[in-house]
Design brief:
- The chain is an alpha/beta fold.
- The chain has helices at 20-23, 28-39, 52-65, 81-88, 128-142; strands at 4-8, 44-48, 68-72, 94-98, 120-123.
- It has a five-stranded parallel sheet with strand order 2-1-3-4-5, with helices on both faces.
- Helix 4 (81-88) links the parallel strand 3 and strand 4 (94-98).
- Bound molecules: ligand CA2.
Length: 143
Amino acid sequence: MKPIYVLNGPNLNRLGKREPQIYGTTTLAEVEANCRIAAGERPVVFRQTNSEGTLINLVHEAIDEGAGIVINPAAFTFTSLALLDALKMFEGPVIELHISNIHKREPIYHRSYVSMRADAVIAGLGAYGYEAAVVALLRLLRA
Ligand code: CA2
């Protein structure tokens, strides 16, 4: 069975350790464990990187080997046409995920390039959003 990819962009390795009022107290390791439980038998490739090039390379890996992608691109959401171009090459379902509700925040967080490719966007559910995204992705894969 092809894995799903759960990809995380810059600074999310600090999750649960800073700004808990915005991002909560759940760590990325806990998020990973919860994603694996939510995915059941479906294998999960869970990655975080602070580098734009590495994130794009991971999307390329998913293009070759993945069934679907959940991606929290963090700040690259709002800056990276290269990431958008890579995601456009992926043929399966893509869910864009944000822990916070980016639309409630400052205007610089309102225009997502990734949303131009994403099949669905989840924002504002906190760390639980990852589990919700994995369950939704599995449903899209079954459809
Ligand atoms: O809400 C999200 O998931 C974001 O993608 C997080 C990004 C932010 O640029 C987006 O607007 C929304 C920032 C991630 C910063 O990572 C931190 C992790 C832990 C503590 C503080 C920051």
